[in-house]
Design goal:
The chain has about 300 residues and is of the alpha+beta class.
């Protein structure tokens, strides 16, 4: 990983432009005989010093300036001046929100299950002075702290917690990171768990367990439905026993619904006909059907 915390700008087009412009002016004055050569040389040295003193920091950056090795202050954004030779810009610190990917491979959970976890952390430098003076290579430091914190967090939770409570795990990890990075002037704004990979054998076992659980639930639901249906039939039987006329009407309705379908054949046990007094009703229905058939043939 490229360490952005030690990135120093070495090419400044504006400084080069100033150096070329001033040197050209002194050279033209010398060639035209208006100044002596020593003045032209002094002008060139002055141009070089002025160009070296001009520095530029982008809008999202802070420049860390050291004077004879001691911290002088933060400069920028925009154009600023330093004293050549005496001052130096040690680094430019980016204060935008950054994204760092990290992972924990083959880490054991609390119930000794090896998992691979991929995560991402969003962080920013809120105090450039602390980030420059308190920690060396703070980008790598944040990455290592994130990896260590992720491993510790995984070891404190069971596999079920990792799979079902990702938000809580991420919040705990963010709290751990903030405790370590805040003294460096760095704040971890958000942590997200991207992926949790478990062994293939364990994944197959969990799939079979889930399938068995769904089958068990289906059998329970079916048994509950059968129980409810039997209760409803039992209540209906009590009503029909108390009211035989209602039972006969129900039988007539069933017979009518069956005869409505063309070419249908209804087989009714004799015991049912006797219990519901449907013998006469069945004969009348058959006679009516025969009379309708003869009328159709005559027509």
């Amino acid at each position: 990983m490229k360490d952005e915390s030690k990135q120093v700008k070495r090419f400044n087009p504006f400084s080069i432009l100033v150096l070329v412009a001033l040197s050209s002016v002194f050279l033209i004055l010398y060639l035209s005989g208006k100044i002596y050569w020593i003045t032209a040389v002094a002008g060139g040295v002055f141009s070089l010093a002025l160009a070296a003193s001009l520095q530029i920091a982008d809008q999202w950056e802070k420049a860390v300036v050291l004077r004879l090795g001691k911290f002088q202050g933060l400069k920028g954004p925009g154009l600023f001046f330093i004293i050549p030779i005496v001052d130096q810009v040690d680094t430019y610190i980016d204060q935008r929100v950054r994204v760092t990917d990290f992972s924990a491979e083959q880490t054991l959970t609390k119930d000794t299950v090896p998992v691979n976890v991929d995560a991402v952390v969003y962080w920013t430098v809120w105090d450039a002075e602390k980030a420059a003076l308190e920690v060396r290579r703070y980008v790598k430091a944040v990455t290592y702290i994130a990896k260590t914190g992720l491993r510790d967090t995984i070891g404190k939770h069971d596999l079920a917690d990792l799979l079902h409570n990702r938000d809580k795990i991420a919040a705990d990890l963010q709290k751990v990171l903030d405790e370590h990075t805040n003294p460096w002037g760095i704040s971890c704004q958000n942590v997200g768990i991207k992926d949790i990979v478990i062994p293939a054998s364990l994944s197959d076992a969990m799939s079979k367990q889930a399938q068995a659980e769904r089958e068990r639930q289906a059998r329970i639901i079916l048994g509950t439905a059968e129980t409810e249906i039997s209760e409803k039939f039992s209540k209906a039987a009590e009503k029909y026993r108390e009211n035989p006329i209602a039972l006969q009407l129900r039988g007539m309705n069933m017979l009518f619904e069956g005869l409505k379908e063309k070419g249908s054949l209804i087989i009714v046990p004799s015991s049912a006909l006797e219990s519901m007094n449907m013998g006469t009703i069945g004969g009348l229905a058959a006679l009516s059907e025969n009379q309708a058939g003869k009328t159709t043939e005559a027509g």
